[in-house]
Design goal:
By secondary structure, this protein is an alpha+beta fold. It contains one helix and three strands, in the order βββα. The mean pLDDT is about 95.
């Protein structure tokens, strides 16, 4: 895992196509913005896990 320190407004570029921007930091909460091609699916971890669980349940 790569760990980076960024300030509000600073960006991280992934694979030249995905841009992650730190929008706001309040206490321990960080707001980020993500710019990516429409073909890239972006999900919160809990949504991804729920989807995976539903797929696995349907397969059984």
């Amino acid at each position: 895992m790569l760990i980076l320190t960024r300030r509000v407004g600073e960006k991280i570029i992934i694979d030249g196509k995905i841009v992650v921007v730190v929008q706001q930091v309040i206490n321990s909460q960080v707001r980020i913005g993500i710019q990516a091609p429409e073909s890239v699916e972006i999900l919160r971890e809990e949504v991804f896990q729920r989807n995976q669980s539903e797929v696995n349940h349907a397969a059984n």
